[in-house]
Amino acid sequence: xxxxxxxxxxxxSSILVLIKKDTEMEITESTFAEILQTFTKExxxxxxxxxxxxxxxxxxxxxxxxxxxxxxxxxxxxxxGVATFYSQFRFSxxxxxxxxxxxxxACHVSGGETLLETFERELDVxxxxxxxxxxxxxxxxxxxxxxxxxxxxxxxxxxxxxxSVIKLKExxxxxx
Length: 176
Fold this sequence. Notes:
Blueprint: E1 2-7, E2 15-20, E3 23-28, H1 29-37, H2 46-57, H3 62-72, H4 76-85, E4 97-102, H5 105-109, H6 112-123, E5 129-130, E6 136-141, E7 153-155, E8 158-160, H7 165-172
Parallel strand pairs: 4-6
Antiparallel strand pairs: 1-2, 2-3, 4-7, 5-6, 7-8
Helix pairs in contact: 2-3, 3-4
């Protein structure tokens, strides 16, 4: 599980605390500043900075958006505007396992949308969100590039092909 908190121990300093899979790691503002200093202070660094923030905590948090905006001297809305344009960025903590349902043409025709709706109903989660128990996050993509195997569901790094609604429970029960 991954939790991000911005803690203000004094009025003049803050500590970004990252907790990932039972390991606590603290990144102070000065440590984060050191990370930021590896990037130039120009708007062209925005996407690499967002990628770095996501690689550290698993998603782009509101706190990281604030720190990046301050560093680049741009508005937070500009940072969010760029980040929301690209599908590679996520804005909520990921689950232990990531489910991706392909909705490309071949998968759509073969029942990809029905698979997505079934995941939503059975796991009680919407695309882009995480289940209440943080076991799964659910996402949809335009194409996974496995058209001959459609419909396709990817869980973590595993590709499941020719998936049917009947197979779904069997698939997600493999992942604890």
